[in-house]
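note to self — DONT lose this again. spent like an hour looking for the file last time. sequence + predicted structure for the chain T wanted, 184 res
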Amino acid sequence: MVQNRQTATKQHIREALIQLLLEEKFETISVSKLCQRAGINRETFYLHYLDKFDLIETLKEEIITQLRKNFEETTNTHDLIITNLSYLQQNHDLIYAVSQSHYLNFRETIREFMLSILTNDQHKVQTEHFLKENFPISEKYALEVFLSSIEGIISLWISSGTKETPEEMTNMILQTFDYDAWRL
């Protein structure tokens, strides 16, 4: 019973943040405004979060954790992209609201997430091969072009309301480069 109440409270806080981010800048949102919109008192808020920065960082980490989990559980590139885009679409309200915040540069968050996956020890050799096969320029610039293009496609899709299906977006992304080069 307590767990359900805590989950419901966090959901109310999340929804309040989404609503407020669509109305004003993160910098002007106070814990008092969040509490009022969520229908809770400040003490309840502070049971879950240190402050508004902790709240938004926690939500960002939840998104990244789920994307990373999807990456670890899915080996097929096509299925992985669909799975992650489906997750982003299902959480569009939150992701769109967060992406509008200048405090949390969501475009950079997407880029950092992709960079951490592409350059980890497990995928480094595949990434180097992929970049060499797709780009006739030095690796560091090739990586930047790749990251920027994928991040740009995803960011535009989110800011446009995720109208295209994850399948349509996956097909679009897969047409941009030779992803068969991931296989050595």
